[in-house]
Amino acid sequence: MKNLKLLAATLLLIVSCKTETKKEDVTKDAELLAKAKGIHERVMTLDTHNDINVNNFTDNRNYKEDLGNQVNLPKMIEGGLDVSWFIVYTGQGELTDKGFDNAYKNAIAKFDAIHKLTKEIAPDQIELAVTSEDARRIYASGKKVAMIGIENGYPVGKDINRVKEFYDLGARYMSLSHNGHSQLCDSNTGEKDDQWLHNGVSSLGKEVIKEMNKWGIMIDVSHPSKKSMQDMIELTKAPIIASHSSARAMCNHSRNLDDEQLDWIKENGGVVQTVAFNSYLNTEKHAAYNKAATAFMEEIAKEQGFTMMSRADARKLEAEAQEKYYAEYMKIRKTAQDKMAESPEKFSPVNVADFVDHIDYMVNKIGLDHVGISSDFDGGGGVDGWNDASETLNVTIELVKRGYTEAQIEQLWSGNLLRVLDKVAEVAKEIQKGEKA
Question: Which end of the chain is more exposed for a tag (fewer CB within 10 A), N or C?
């Protein structure tokens, strides 16, 4: 059973006890909350995209404590988040031997950090899973589950043998690009100025896709371009996933999938993990709220002698300076958000309801079997009501409010993604068996 606490945010979402509220409405809200909590305790909740910082995986600073970030063990326990896919992310750099070498070192450092958490830091609280069977066994034991995804195939370099190496280290999905074209495929970022490097998947990328199919790594299409995704659909022998994307028809952002892409996912048998990322859910609403929040933050920053920077400029900082900047930035952001929350009638942030609107849209468009849930926590994700792992219950509450059954909620939270993982593993075994025959 999950050690699930009643969240303050839940009370705001469900039990708004205004003096004029009718008694029957309060009773109805209490019944809905109890139903949602019961479902949340019984289903395995899985989030496919949580970024990490290797500095949070040391003997002195690690996920056994609430570090102020969005995902750690205390917050997973509090919110009933059972499975976290920790991300081996590498920013896109130059397509040179030096660039590939640095990318590989970065990836290995993140693999090592995740292994350290599960093997040395907190093996009594969290364990690494590489199959759906592992995930269910660990969940049943009462521990949290760690799984690994790779965001950006850049660390593969020019050596396709690294696909098997990453598989052996526990990776079970990989995107072939991130923000910027990689050596493997074009990124969605090329859409901005219609500039492309490969016009889809490169010849090396095609070989990497074969290796991913062979060893059982899910192909993630969240960051690659539409043409790259089309190539991947044609090349793959297994279902694919979008690890953290939403519906473009609902929000016209290049990181989202349009209706044609959603249909491709359905035909392929894959799954789209709807992402709780403000600007991918409602750009206009987010922009208005963000403008107000920025004004609050700049005022607070000025009072505290802190200089605000653009995201692009912050990324240019050395690693240690960048970490220090964002630590202070998050404190100021939290102060601003708290002040804005005191006047909800004036400020309207993107929230859990906006997030589930995208789930509803994709369920209606391509069917329940092809939709899942992700947050992109610690990588820019989070919405009002689900701003860190401790608030995970609020997603289940919103799903219950909309009439989803327990079986359907189980599919959305973990069943669909794990079904695809199983199918990808099955295809890999068939390929390996065929090569040996």
Answer: C
How is the chain split among helix, strand and coil, in percent rounded to 5?
A: 55, 15, 35
Residues 224/232, Cβ–Cβ less than 8 Å: yes
Domain with CATH 3.20.20.140 in the chain: 24-282+350-436
Residue type, 437: A
Q: Which residue has the higher pLDDT, 293 or 362?
A: 362
pTM of the model: 0.89
For every residue of 314-341, DSSP letters joined together read HHTS-HHHHHHHHHHHHHHHHHHHHHHH
User: What's the confidence (pLDDT) of residue 158?
Assistant: 98
pLDDT of res. 311: 76
Structure tokens at 207: 């070989």
Give DSSP secondary structure letters for 405-429: -HHHHHIIIIIHHHHHHHHHHHHHH
Contact call for residues 246 and 274 (beta carbons, < 8 A): yes
For residue 16, name the pLDDT band (cuts at 50, 70, 90): very low
Looking at per-residue pLDDT, the higher value among 15 and 183 belongs to 183
Give the chain's mean pLDDT. 92
Structure tokens of 216?
């059982």
Beta strands of 30-143 (E only): which ranges? 46-51, 83-89, 126-128
Q: Which two tokens stand for residue 348?
A: 């309207």
Cα 7 to its chain centre, rounded Å, is 22
What is the CATH architecture assignment of 24-282+350-436? Alpha-Beta Barrel (3.20)
Are the beta carbons of 373 and 394 closer than 8 angstroms? no
Give the integer Cα–Cα distance in Å for 384 and 393: 13
Residues 149/173, Cβ–Cβ less than 8 Å: yes
Q: Which of 187, 160, 180, 195 is nearest to 94 (CA)?
A: 180
Distances (CA, A) of 88 to 115, 173, 303: 12, 10, 37
- Residue 359 CA to residue 370 CA, distance in Å, equals 10
List, in sequence order, every residue forming a beta bridge with 382; answer none if it has no partner: 277
Cβ-proximal residues to 328 (8 Å cutoff; 6+ apart), any chain:
306
Contact between 73 and 63 under an 8 Å Cβ cutoff? The reply is: yes
Strand segments, DSSP code E, in 224-280 are 240-242, 271-275
Q: Hey, what amino acid is at 100?
A: F
Look at the block and give the residue holding tokens 């195939």: 153
